[in-house]
Amino acid sequence: MPRIRDIAQICKSKNAGPFMVTIDVLFEDPALYRKVKEAGVLSAALFSRLYGVAEEDVLFTPYDTASAFKATLPRLVPAGDIGDTDVYGAQQHAPLLDVEIPL
Amino acid sequence: MNEYRMLSTSGILGYGYAEESLKIGMSWEPHLIGCDGGSTDPGPYYLGAGKSFVSRLSAKRDLRLMLQAAVAAKIPCIIGTAGGAGGAPHLQDTAALVREIAREEGLSFRMALIHSEQSKPSLEERVRLGQTRPLAKMNSLDAETINRAERIVGMMGPEPFNKALDGGAQVILAGRSSDPAQWAGPAIRAGIPPAVAWYAGKMLECGAEPSVPKEPDNIFIRAREDHLVCEPPNPIRRSTPLAVANFALHENSSPIHHTEPGGLLDTSACLFEAISDRAVKVSGMTWTPAEQYTVKLEGVERAGYRAITVCGTRDPVLIGQIDSYLETHREKVRVKAASFGVPPEDYTMVVRTYGKDGVMAAWEPVKAITSHELGFVIEVVGRTQDIANAVLAMARTSMLHADFPGRLCKEGNMAFPFSPSDIELGPMFRFSIFHVVAPRDPYEMFPIEYETV
Asked: Where in this chain does the record put each DUF4387 domain (chain A) (predicted)?
């Protein structure tokens, strides 16, 4: 089964304000995006499981016009607070790369 | 056809851009040139300390070329969120830089400074009047939180920029501002509908990000009645539908709803079309004015003082038992700190282990350590700098010399790359205010000062 890292053109994370991190997956080919969407693996439940946050705290939005998925979740620690490891939130995407999509 | 052309030089003033890009961009006859000057992204320190996260030398280089171009073309030059965080010291430092460049280059213009730092009494009054509400999962704003804060800024919308243009300013330096506002305002003033003007602002706020290869550089937007066209001046870059769509997702919790001071930009029906191999047309955005105009507040408070040290181990015996070693280490530091009079409640110690979970902490799904070496950043935040320094020095010594089962490396467990090994980071800040306020109008929180440079 292909993984996200094999089929997506962009997979990235970044702060959305100091308290949230937002993770994006983009596809260049709208047809492939639609297949991934139909597979139903990418969902709020997936992000809840991968990051250990409550599902109701995950804002998950497929964005058809950009062939993209976005998930926004609360950071472990606010940006720059004691114990933060990633002030910009730019390296929190990796668990997604190995997610398998049944196509 | 009404067309308003805007040239943004970089992601942040001081991140740099190719001089050639600016020459080409200016030949496309923009009505406005500018650059975003800041962000909360580098964290709470810069707002608290009143410092910039880019160097004065690189900001001056970027600004000098922009001012020369703007004066030669007789167009406005606007810097939003000046100095990195938009507080009073940030705005004044940027103004000093502009005056210095003008003197060196013999330039003259009318300049506006738009202030955004909010006084504590004014905010207490707004709390009393019930004008504030929390964002994210913050508590309601109260007088105590306001008074604990080191510095608080309001995030202005497009209206103060337009007021400064109406006031005859050619160069505008703004305090904290919503990233797209410095572009959306002048575009709306020129008759471009708000939906297109705001989207244009979003495309311009980070320079060449909506292009490939994605690096700090210029971006050029042509805003028209029902669409905009995005094109990078630098011939080595291209805007593609993927690059533009990717950027539409940037730093926002939703890809389709963008909340701004005066309303909501909806991008759910946007269409990204390549109109050449390097320019993209975006259409279909909508704008819904808000019933209540709101301004976001950002504030930070001092959380203590910080000191850090960096070290690494190459010892396989130690790597094999690193979790229990770090537990022992923490206990040794606690006992020794208490012995010189620092109780545990006076400091927090965090050890980040690179090669294990230094990047993702509790979010790291990979539990097995497969690296032959591990790196550590030991951090101590203390009630005072002296406490932070003292506990950190003890943590460093304990990390180097603590015993562990099966230890062969009896002279020391860690490689320290530097002398001095301990780095004093000074005051540490945390975001404490992240609220919105409903002002009487879009201007009252953002007084404008004019001067002739």
From this structure: 4-100
In a domain, B130, yes or no: no
Contact A52 B362 (CB under 8 A): yes
Same domain, B365 and B445: no
Instruction: Please count the structural domains in chain B.
Output: 2
A56 touches B at CB < 8 Å: no
In a domain, A101, yes or no: no
Task: Report how far apart, in Å, the C-alpha atoms of B372 and of each of A94, B138, B362, B414 are.
Answer: 21, 42, 22, 14
A14, part of any domain? yes
Distance CA A15, CA B261 (A): 20
**Interchain CB distance below 8 Å, A66 and B255:** yes
Are B78 and B165 in a shared domain?
yes
Q: Which residue of A has its CA nearest to B283?
A: A65
Under an 8 A CB cutoff, do A86 and B41 touch? no
Q: Summarize pLDDT for B267-295 with one digit per residue, the tens.
A: 999 999 999 999 999 999 999 999 999 99
List the single residue in A59, A66, A83 with the smallest CB-CB distance to B249: A66
Contact B249 A70 (CB under 8 A): yes
Return the CA Rg of chain B.
25
Q: Residue A66 and residue B352: Cα distance in Å, rounded?
A: 37
**Mean model confidence pLDDT for chain B:** 96
Count of domains observed in chain A = 1
Give the closest-approach CA distance of A98 to chain B in angstroms. 11
**pLDDT band at A14; cut points 50, 70, 90:** very high
B89 and B39 housed in the same domain: yes
pLDDT band at B91 (very low <50, low <70, confident <90, very high): very high
A102 located within any domain: no
Percent pLDDT > 70 in chain B is: 100
Cβ neighbours for B16, distance < 8 A, ≥ 6 positions apart? B10, B58, B61, B62, B216
Note the pTM of the prediction, 2 decimals.
0.93
Read off the pLDDT of residues B224-252 as tens digits, 9 standing for 90 and up. Answer: 999 999 999 999 999 999 899 888 888 78
Distance, in Å, from the CA atom of B6 to the CA atom of B291, rounded to the nearest integer, reads: 29
Do the Cβ atoms of B246 and A66 come within 8 Å?
yes
